[in-house]
Design goal:
globular, alpha+beta, 6 strands, VC0802-like, Alpha-Beta Plaits, single chain
Length: about 180
Amino acid sequence: METIAVYWEPIIRTYGFQFREGLVWHALRLPLDRVDDWSRGLQGLADPAATFQLTWARLDPEASMTMSLVCEPVHWNRIRPIWIGNTACDGGGAAPETMVDLVWFHGPHFGDRYGIMDFTYQVLHRGQVPLLAAICSVASIYLVLPAGQGAATRMLLAGAFEIPTAVNGPRQGASPVQG
């Protein structure tokens, strides 16, 4: 059983919006009956030269797991041999690479990620922004968007949320949108 917190603000506050453009998203289907094999293979991702911005996994109904990874193309060239080259990781489901943008934000949401996501979905829907994936982690929300959508989406969301510029009032020259 999960306890769900509900917190309401007339205009939802967040700590600003960040984004990265020109990233690669790759999803790989992993067979659940070979967890020990592919988990050893994926340990190579600990290589400091192979950095990535975001990773997440979801269980699939076909006794497999789809693991996704978002990174810069230069790092994808280092990660690719680890990610795809390990036969234990080949569950027959390596999806083609997709170029994406990533927008993320953090906030004092008091655990109400469902309400924050609902509000975010409404803003994206009104702005006709296509969303490829949404990932929540505690008070952080990550949005995976088609390439070229990150900057406009960040501005759209910045107009819908309140972004305090300082605790004791606005700072001179402070920008509510961070990059």
